[in-house]
Q: What sequence folds into this?
């Protein structure tokens, strides 16, 4: 028998083998391979992309530092809950040329000179010495290898003010995403110092919940720095108690700033005065593309200012004005603004007070708008009149580009929903329509379904009618549209009144339909009788890949109808049977066909009271099924006996990497064994 010498393989093959064995992570597998010989050590080190340490102290020792910088291909470095010298960290980072993510959250970062710095006066509080870190070269990397650390997670750290300020000493070629939450009262002063000392370091800044609005003078200094800053692209100042006065200072700098692209000012206290200032500055600013201004309560004056801004701004592509108590009742300018704006793509007005005249003004603007692609008007008061106006405006605007419409929770009845049949018939851009959580009954489905029959090539691919009052009659209307292979790919009828007869009506068309890929029928109480018809239809269906039947009153009797479905259907990948009552016997019945099923990758059996007996039966599919990836057995009265069966069979499986066993009665020691096995099967990061 000829012996195969792995060292004779091409380098690229060797690296591929090492990559598969190590999963590109620094782990015990790495050490087992790298200790074989120096050649394997070199090649294996080049396959490590992720290094993670947790809850340990990183020594500033020559061997440690030399070891860490040896992984030149690393792009993700994590020291969560660790203790490390900040200067040591800085120079380690400098020598990992491909690093683009650094996670040092919950760390204790210290400076060797802290004791000396504590004796300095306040004028020198931000000074820091450049320490030579043992075992690390001091030179900068070659110009063509200088990386950009786009994700630097620095939240909730035990970090000294002086040490945070040493970020100003990091070389200019780094672009750091800095996250600082719930830190010192003078956080904004520290950030100002860093940005003033190093103009190019910070690319993204998250100062959520830092109470910045309380410190007007410090905010003023920060605003002055932003006027000339050229590196900051993403700024999050949400939940910072920013009032009208603070907003004025911020607005003055935004008029001059040309780098910020994403700005989050949500959950502040700007009200009318601050809202007017921010809106006016955005008439001038030409760099901000995305603004989140939710929960600031601009009142009528502020709303009018934002309408003017929408009309005059030429850079904003995404605007979030949700939860602002906006009505537009006395702001007709919004119609002109929406008609004239040529850049805004995404408009979020959810959770406001829009009704009556406000919806009329918006509809008028939408009838002439040619830029918007997504509109979210959910949780308002559009009702039938407003819904009709919106539907007509979009249906008969030949230049509209709207693809997503969200009007859930708007008190829309059937008379308002009928108007959306015009969108089905005449519009050529809308692909997703959400009319969930309204008061729509089956009568509206007659017109909408007829529209799909008259225009089988409608642009609409997905319709959400969940949480309405549609009964078996509506299911019959929809069935006729589905029978004609209309354009629908995703249909959501969650929580309606279909029951057994509704499922039977839909089944008549599902058998022949070849376009629908996703069907949500949960919480419709279709029962075992409805499941029988549905399963028979799904056996012949060749297009549906996802079906949800949660809370459908399915018992052990219904489980027997799933057996031929699981044996013969070869398209369904996602199956949700949660919150039913199949019990241990039902679990045993469906486990048999699952042993040979080759398509289902995700199965949810939560809350079915399958117990130890059912869990053992389900676990028997593990050695034989190599397709299933995710399984939920949440809240199933499973004890240690069933869990041990899961452990024993999971060892023989190499594909299942997620099992939800929460809310059961399993001993923690057994859960740890299951978790350890699942971790070894997790797919490598893409």
A:
């Amino acid at each position: 028998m000829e012996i195969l010498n792995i060292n004779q393989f091409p380098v690229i093959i060797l690296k591929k083998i090492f990559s598969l064995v190590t999963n590109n992570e620094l782990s015990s597998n790495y050490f087992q391979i790298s200790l074989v010989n120096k050649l394997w050590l070199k090649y294996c080190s080049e396959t490590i992309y992720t290094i993670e340490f947790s809850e340990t102290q990183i020594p500033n020792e020559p061997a440690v530092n030399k070891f860490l910088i040896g992984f030149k291909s690393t792009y993700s470095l994590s020291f969560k809950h660790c203790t490390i010298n900040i200067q040591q960290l800085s120079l380690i980072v400098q020598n990992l040329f491909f690093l683009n993510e650094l996670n040092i959250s919950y760390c204790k970062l210290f400076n060797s000179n802290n004791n000396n710095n504590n004796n300095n006066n306040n004028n020198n509080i931000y000074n820091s010495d450049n320490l030579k870190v043992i075992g690390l070269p001091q030179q900068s990397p070659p110009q063509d290898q200088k990386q950009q650390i786009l994700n630097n997670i620095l939240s909730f750290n035990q970090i000294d003010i002086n040490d945070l300020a040493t970020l100003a000493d990091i070389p200019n070629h780094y672009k750091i995403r800095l996250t600082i939450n719930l830190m010192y009262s003078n956080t904004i002063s520290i950030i100002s110092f860093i940005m003033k000392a190093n103009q190019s370091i910070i690319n993204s800044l998250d100062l959520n919940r830092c109470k910045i609005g309380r410190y007007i003078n410090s905010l003023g200094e920060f605003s002055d720095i932003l006027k000339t800053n050229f590196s900051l692209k993403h700024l999050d100042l949400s939940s910072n108690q920013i009032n009208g006065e603070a907003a004025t200072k911020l607005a003055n700098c935004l008029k001059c700033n040309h780098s910020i692209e994403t700005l989050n000012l949500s959950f502040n206290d700007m009200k009318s005065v601050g809202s007017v200032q921010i809106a006016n500055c955005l008439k001038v600013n030409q760099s901000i593309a995305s603004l989140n201004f939710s929960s600031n309560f601009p009142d009528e004056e502020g709303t009018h200012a934002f309408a003017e801004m929408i009309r005059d701004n030429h850079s904003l592509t995404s605007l979030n004005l949700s939860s602002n108590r906006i009505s537009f009742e006395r702001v007709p300018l919004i119609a002109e603004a929406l008609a004239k704006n040529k850049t805004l793509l995404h408009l979020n007005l959810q959770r406001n007070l829009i009704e009556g005249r406000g919806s009329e003004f918006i509809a008028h603007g939408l009838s002439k708008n040619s830029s918007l692609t997504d509109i979210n008007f959910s949780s308002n008061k559009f009702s039938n009149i407003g819904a009709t106006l919106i539907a007509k405006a979009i249906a008969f605007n030949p230049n509209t580009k709207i693809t997503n419409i969200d009007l859930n929770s708007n008190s829309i009845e059937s008379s308002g929903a009928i108007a959306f049949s015009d969108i089905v018939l005449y519009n050529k851009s809308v692909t997703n329509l959400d009319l969930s959580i309204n008061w729509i009954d089956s009568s509206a489905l007659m017109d909408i379904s007829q529209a799909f029959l008259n225009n089988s090539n409608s642009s609409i691919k997905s319709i959400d009618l969940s949480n309405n009052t549609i009964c078996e009659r509506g299911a019959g209307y929809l069935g006729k549209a589905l029978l004609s292979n209309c354009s629908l790919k995703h249909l959501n009828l969650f929580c309606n009144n279909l029951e057994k007869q509704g499922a039977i009506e839909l089944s008549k068309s599902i058998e022949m339909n070849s376009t629908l890929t996703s069907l949500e029928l949960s919480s419709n109480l279709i029962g075992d009788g409805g499941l029988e018809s549905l399963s028979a239809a799904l056996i012949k269906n060749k297009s549906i890949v996802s079906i949800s039947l949660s809370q459908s009153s399915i018992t052990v009797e219904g489980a027997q109808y799933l057996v031929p479905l699981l044996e013969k259907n070869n398209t369904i990948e996602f199956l949700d049977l949660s919150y039913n009552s199949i019990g241990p016997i039902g679990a045993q019945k469906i486990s048999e066909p699952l042993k040979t099923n080759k398509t289902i990758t995700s199965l949810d059996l939560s809350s079915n009271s399958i117990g130890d007996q059912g869990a053992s039966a389900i676990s028997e599919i593990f050695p034989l099924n190599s397709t299933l990836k995710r399984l939920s057995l949440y809240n199933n009265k499973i004890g240690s006996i069933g869990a041990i069966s899961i452990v024993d069979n999971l060892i023989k499986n190499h594909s299942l990497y997620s099992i939800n066993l929460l809310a059961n009665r399993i001993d923690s020691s057994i859960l740890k064994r299951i978790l350890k096995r699942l971790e070894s099967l997790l797919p490598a990061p893409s």
